[in-house]
Amino acid sequence: MSYVFVALVAGAVGVGGVAVPAVEPDLRFHVSQYDAPGVDKRTPESLGAEWISVINTGPTAISLKGWTVGESQGRVYTFGAVVVPAKGGKVRLRTGGGVDTAADVHWNSGTHVWDNTGDQAILRDPAGKTHDLCGWGYLAGRTRVKC
C-alpha cells in the first residue's frame, strides 16, 4: 500500500466532496524491511538487512541525485549519483555500511534507522517537496511491509 501525502491530493475532490483516488507517482517507495531478521545487535549484518526500496514504474530512468529519504525521528539520507532504471527498476537503501552499487546504496548508519513498532518513511525531491510516504505500525511477527 502506498501512502500518498495529503498535500499531493488536496484539491483532487470529486462531486459531493468524495475524494478522487490519488494517482501513484512513477517513483515511489516499494518495500521496507524495517525489522532486520534476528536480534537487532547493530552488527554490520543486522544493519545491512534493514532497508527500504524505491521503484520506478515510469517509461524513463530517474536520477535520485539530491532526493532524500527521511523518517519520523528526523534522520535524513541524501542520495548521490544513483539512477533508478525505468519500467520497474528498483534501488534499495540499506541502513548499514557497504559498497554502493546500481541496486543498493548505504545510509552508513551505526544504528538501526527504522522503528520496529512503527515509523514513516518520507521521500522528498531535491526541492524538498514530499513525493511519497510509507508508514507502518506494530504487527507481531511482521518484519517488512509493502508500501
Automatic annotation (TrEMBL):
It comes from the Bacteria. InterPro entries: Lamin_tail_dom (IPR001322), Lamin_tail_dom_sf (IPR036415). Pfam families: LTD (PF00932). Residues 32-137 form the LTD domain. Transmembrane segments: none annotated. This is LTD domain-containing protein.
